[in-house]
Specification:
With 159 residues, the protein is an alpha+beta fold. It has 2 domains: 90 residues; 68 residues, no CATH class. The protein is built from 4 helices and 6 strands. A 4-stranded antiparallel β-sheet has the order 3-4-5-6, with no helix packed on it. A hairpin with a 5-residue loop joins β4 and β5. α2 packs parallel to α3. The longest helix is centred in the middle third of the chain and has 14 residues. It is globular and about 50 Å long.
């Protein structure tokens, strides 16, 4: 269902040509493939997408995945589309949603850079927070809220 809703990865849009794309028939198989992937020393990262709230995605499964990723040192992201927040063994939990695009500097009536609203709502050793982000030239940037001079000044200093 995740592929039907969000599509497949477009390899030419990625900065690397080294990509292994696995399509699983159900959540149980997808979680197994992810766990095997994080245990493989040849992979630099594992990203999995699951739709909704499958029964196989319980606390034990997410805990096993988190522990396997920590032991191997391979970063692992589990993207849940259309799911509800529930008990998880994940070390960091984020909600990411689209936000209105920025104003186009050349034409105020045209859409500008894409923007996202990212909320860290649970993490060990990190306070929760919410950020607005945009992506340009292979980098993510914080977007200052209207009237937020402090953030705007930080952006100018780091540019």
């Amino acid at each position: 269902m995740a592929i039907l809703e969000s599509g497949r990865i477009h390899p030419p849009g990625l900065p690397t040509a080294n990509l292994i794309h696995v399509t699983a028939r159900d959540a149980k198989d997808a979680l197994w493939a992810m766990e095997e992937g994080v245990r493989c020393a040849a992979l630099s990262a594992v990203i999995g997408e699951l739709w909704g709230d499958p029964r196989a995605l319980d606390f034990t499964a997410t805990r096993r995945l988190a522990v396997a990723a920590e032991r191997s040192g391979t970063p692992c992201w589990l993207v849940r589309l259309g799911g509800t927040a529930n008990l998880s063994g994940a070390r960091m939990r984020w909600r990411v949603a689209s936000a209105p695009s920025l104003i186009n500097p050349l034409d105020g009536r045209a859409p500008g850079l894409a923007a996202w609203d990212a909320e860290l709502f649970r993490a060990r050793g990190h306070p929760p927070g919410r950020w607005s982000l945009t992506h340009e030239a292979d980098r993510f940037h914080l977007v200052a809220a209207a009237g937020d001079r402090a953030l705007g000044e930080v952006e100018r200093l780091s540019a």
